[in-house]
Every structure is written in C-alpha cells, then in structure tokens.
Amino acid sequence: MALPDRIALADVRAARERIAGSVLRTPLVPLGVDDAPAEIYLKLENLQPIGSFKLRGAGNAMALADPVDLAKGVYTASAGNMAQGVAWNARRLGIPCRVVVPDHAPRAKLDAIARLGAETIPVPFERWFQVLVERAYPGLDGHFIHPVSDPAVIAGNGTIGLEVLEDLADVDAVVVPYGGGGLSAGIASAMHALKPDTRIFACEVATAAPLSASLAAGEPREVEYVPSFVDGMGAKGLLPEMWPLVSSLLAGSLVVSLQEIASAIRLLVTRNHVVAEGAGAAPVAAALAGGAGTGKVVCVISGGNLDASKLAWILERDEPPPV
Length: 323
Description:
- By secondary structure, the chain is of the alpha/beta class.
- The protein has two domains: 9-51 and 151-317, Rossmann fold (3-Layer(aba) Sandwich); 55-144, 3-Layer(aba) Sandwich (Rossmann fold), CATH 3.40.50.
- Helix content is 43%, strand content 15%.
- The protein contains 13 helices and ten strands.
- It has a six-stranded mixed beta sheet, with helices on both faces.
- Strand 4, helix 5 (107-115) and strand 5 form a beta-alpha-beta unit.
- Helix 1 (9-19) crosses helix 7, helix 2 packs across helix 4 (81-93) and helix 2 packs across helix 7.
- The model has no long low-confidence stretch (mean pLDDT 95).
C-alpha cells in the first residue's frame, strides 16, 4: 500500500472533529526533575478511556469506513492497545470485533480486550507480524483496521501534535515511541506543517530497534527481535510502506535500554503519579539521557497498560521484569 509523503494538515484537523466526542484532549504536564538535561513535558495519552492513544486512530478510521463494511464487523492485529481502540469503538457502534494477537501479549491487555467484548486469536509473533504485512488473516471476515499504515489511523494519531502545539507553542522536540511508525508519522506530519523547526524523534528499545538500524544504513534493515516487558513497540523490521514516510519526517531514533525504561517507569510513578507501560516510558528515558537535546522536550506517554505484577517488580527492584 502506497502512502503519501506526509499526512495533510487538513486531514488531521478533520480527524480531530470526527473523534472529538469520544477522545480526551489529554493534558501536557511538566516532568518536574530538576537536574534533567531539558525542560521535559509529558503528553499523557495513558489517560484515554482505554489507557492508550490508539483510540484516536481507530476512531477516525472507523468513522471513515463504509457502513456496509462495518456491519460485518471489524478486526485488527495488535499486541493490545490498538485492539482496545478498535474494540472500544466496535462496542460503541454495536458491531463484532476480533483481534489477532501475538502469543506473548500481556495479560493486562488481553483482559482489557475481553472486557470490551472482542474475541482474541493468539498466534506466534512471526505470524502476527505477517498479518500486518498482508493486511488480512485467513478466515476472518469484516473490515480490517490496520494498526499502523492506514492514512486515517495516522491522521487520527496526528491530532496529538495539534494539541501539543496549542499547549506549548515553542516546543523544541517531541519524542515518540516507535512501534510501526503510525504515531510518530502522524505527529510529525501535523507539527511540521505548523512548526517545521520542531524535531520529532522516534524512540526504540535496544532489544528491537529496526528503525535505528535502517536510518544508519539509509535503507530498511532487519534486526534481531528479543521479546521483553516492553510489548508496545519493537519488531524485527519495518513495514515497507512506512519507510519513506518516517525516514523523511523523523529527526532520528533514540535507542534506550530495558533498564533505562524500567527506571523511567519508576520515576514517573514516584514523581508524577503516572503509570506508563514500557513503550510509554521509553521517551522519558531517552529525554533524560539527553538524546532529544536541550530546550523544551515533549515526551508522548503513549499508554499505561502495564501488568500490575510487572509494575510491582519495577517499583520494588528498579530493574526490568521478566517477560
């Protein structure tokens, strides 16, 4: 599937109007660490009704879908958060929802999907990633909502960029967790149209950082994928259709360790009373390490759906929990 060079600002603004009744305008708050290398702010997408930004893209994509197609139900492929975004909107519309999930998806996210009334289909990670590539799963009918490379999903994600600029017009950099690129591409599309000097950085975990390797090589590359408690981002490679978009829009990829992410989760709880999952805390780890530079840096806390047992482990030990 070919994507445009960037998502048009008009499409992002239209998405904002469509989803206004179901999505929170989340707050932007200071991190409050005195010795940080930058003035760090937190965009709290973990406060969305499903605990994740995914409600934005899912809501916009389903609002634009043909009602005849929607009547047959919807399905997606997701480790948990996009599944909840699609399932939440499906329940609101009264249509069935099914989700192909990787077999290592965390219990907290699987339980949330079930509470929203969706059916899950667990498959090995390699097969799950293939659903993203093929944009279909044999035997499932209904309208497929791609969690990443759907222009409507990316436009919905881009509404975060509009809100950031309204709350912090002189922002210097934004750090965004990188799963498939739909969040960072959406935010970058919106912000570059309105404030092109703002740098948008992706953030990856060291155990699965294909974007960093690809940017260094100047072309898409595959890397070793090691499962970890950071389930909301990371893969062995990039979706081919996303490479032109992210390589042109993003200022780089900041890679952080599992230990740095665990420490950021602990810091967010103790300093800001904010619970972030691994992917959501990764931008804070990157900003604290100085990767986004000085000035005013916004970290997108993409989600807060972290297993209670893993959170307890991190708070007690300040180290990464087991998978």
